[in-house]
Protein 1
Amino acid sequence: EAAVTQSPRNKVTVTGGNVTLSCRQTNSHNYMYWYRQDTGHGLRLIHYSYGAGNLQIGDVPDGYKATRTTQEDFFLLLELASPSQTSLYFCASSVTNQDTQYFGPGTRLLVL
Amino acid sequence: AQSVTQPDARVTVSEGASLQLRCKYSYSGTPYLFWYVQYPRQGLQLLLKYYSGDPVVQGVNGFEAEFSKSNSSFHLRKASVHWSDSAVYFCVLSLTGNYKYVFGAGTRLKVIA
């Protein structure tokens, strides 16, 4: 069973604050993804990567940076957090870009 | 543009009753289709997937789905639901040769006694 972990599980910050969300997968998957989940929108792709050092822009990238430091680790950075970024964030990984994605448990972020 | 529509935002069924959750997609290419389930305070988990072949695919926990190219649909079914099936269900379209998953908005299922 693929394992994807996220930290922290919950985070509260203030407007203008700096936040880093972490994701680690232990199955040597090539692809990793960051999504946000908001009521009525399903999941929306922020950024994704197909290997260490690679970064691709998703559908809602504004206000977010990401970095893939190793095969296992993918980080999402909010350098000037805004209340509109209050959301539930999921990380996922997959072997190929069309295969099953394995999701982490999510990070709930509140920006005051 | 590609899209996935789950027309029912909420569905309530009695325990032991049958279930159908509807999914319609819009895509001119060959679709790869998935159903994922999200239990409270958890990430999404794969129920089943369809790539090609037999249009009826079996998944975990007694779920199955039927692909219809003519109707652009991929409805999820279960013969007899259990209270533990209460969750949010997402229909997902993967585009040929593309990184992208297209998510439906989800259907929240509530199973009552």
Protein 2
Amino acid sequence: DTAVSQTPKYLVTQMGNDKSIKCEQNLGHDTMYWYKQDSKKFLKIMFSYNNKELIINETVPNRFSPKSPDKAHLNLHINSLELGDSAVYFCASSQRGGVGQYFGPGTRLTVT
Amino acid sequence: AQTVTQSQPEMSVQEAETVTLSCTYDTSESNYYLFWYKQPPSRQMILVIRQEAYKQQNATENRFSVNFQKAAKSFSLKISDSQLGDTAMYFCAFGLTQGGSEKLVFGKGTKLTVNP
């Protein structure tokens, strides 16, 4: 019974392609997030959605577009992939602010 | 803007001993949350412990405890009776609530190795 799941876990693609990462949580949480972890392990928030509404939208290239079809799902679509997009992308969820977040297993994206 | 600093990139400890990981942060906010997350080699991010800034009492979770010094903006993590499974990257995080969300700012992490 995975709490926060992501697919795929690994993604290798070429520059210029478009790809999507899917995230689902079965915890009944209201809020979901996307984070990027770079090669030096630095973790930075990208987006958050609360009940399908975009709340946090950090300085992220507009090639990245989150989509939340319902509060249990938050997908990340990336257009025109660049070498610098190579990273591990984590999805997370929380019931509300201040209680901490449950993270998915991460998706390692490699752009060649 | 908030910043989180973890001054120890790497640490090691012998099994069964105690180790303390340092974290300082900078903010002008008065209501916030602080967290420690663990990332073992499996890559999974795991919440270890949380602290509400308005609470003076230090949080504890089994072998994990924090020393929260609000005036000094310091939030260290103490791991007692270290176990091999504690080997991981440890990230300190500062959190602010925003529209039902929780915006976390992470430090750069401390890589902890527990030696047998």
Protein 3
Amino acid sequence: DTAVSQTPKYLVTQMGNDKSIKCEQNLGHDTMYWYKQDSKKFLKIMFSYNNKELIINETVPNRFSPKSPDKAHLNLHINSLELGDSAVYFCASSQRYGGGRNTEAFFGQGTRLTVV
Amino acid sequence: AQSVAQPEDQVNVAEGNPLTVKCTYSVSGNPYLFWYVQYPNRGLQFLLKYITGDNLVKGSYGFEAEFNKSQTSFHLKKPSALVSDSALYFCAVRDVGAAGNKLTFGGGTRVLVKP
């Protein structure tokens, strides 16, 4: 009964490849996010979707393309992978309620991407 | 723009002693403030939040935090630390008035509780 689940947990791939990370939440939330955690553990938001609509795109290279088929899923596709894309990618979700506010975000376990 | 500062990269404390992890924030409007904990090779776990109301908020595992508007701080505290509290702690802020409900995180503070 995992709340926010990501697959795969580990991903090792060569430069230039295209890969996807999947995320699903069973909390009934309407907002989902992708965060990137670098080697120094710094966390930075990449994207935010609300009800399948892109809300935030934090100047992420267009090699990164999120796809939200429904509000329970937010997948991340990465084209032409580069060494600098190596990081841990976290999916998260929250629920928007009155006044434009959201509940706290719940995070998945992370996907450790290593580009070689 | 919103930002969070955690001035200490690491905090060392003996088991049974009080633990404090510092956080200051900057937002243009009213803040929502959060603390998360990350154990090795795990995702972030929510500890507590300040939305409105009492400045002292209590959360999971005996942690609490105090919102101080004048000092723009939201320090995390635990009266008696356990070895199992050793982890990476993140403070985060959301500007209530900002679009997108973006959470901005501090750089994290590693807590090491020694037996």
Protein 4
Amino acid sequence: AQSVTQLDSQVPVFEEAPVELRCNYSSSVSVYLFWYVQYPNQGLQLLLKYLSGSTLVKGINGFEAEFNKSQTSFHLRKPSVHISDTAEYFCAVSDRHNTDKLIFGTGTRLQVFP
Amino acid sequence: AAGVIQSPRHLIKEKRETATLKCYPIPRHDTVYWYQQGPGQDPQFLISFYEKMQSDKGSIPDRFSAQQFSDYHSELNMSSLELGDSALYFCASSLAGIDTQYFGPGTRLTVL
């Protein structure tokens, strides 16, 4: 079974500052890793994913994440945030051999202040 | 590009009533997933279908059932609704062999 831990429930940051949203996972099997963003009253939008290959993954809206197998982490970063990045961010994993079920973390609320 | 369509977007029901949620996947996607997101919680996997057959099952109550039709759309049927069923219900779709799920906007169900 897999589990995902997002250590920060809320991350306040000023506009144009860098941000890192932390995600750690636990799994006995190889996994795929995802970050989704949920804007208020909207659905989940895929930001980026790690399936294989380069451990540094670039996504939409200037976000990137780095897969660290030894630390079982998949932290999300952005060098300079905008007000419009204010949203809920979910890290998720799926079993490489059974990709039906996405297991989500509890989410991190990114609040960007002017 | 076409996205996942869910209807209705909002639904209000009384306790013990029945609700049906519909999901239309992205064209050519053959796999559909249902998730439930309670207030302030992360999405929880309910059930999935591939080529009209149930492929995996999560924490779906026995009061709920779902199916996928020949045109690949799916319906989630919820009976004997309880207050705790109030949540955002997401449908996602994917193409078999492609490991990314694309989510719809969700149906917000409120049970009074």
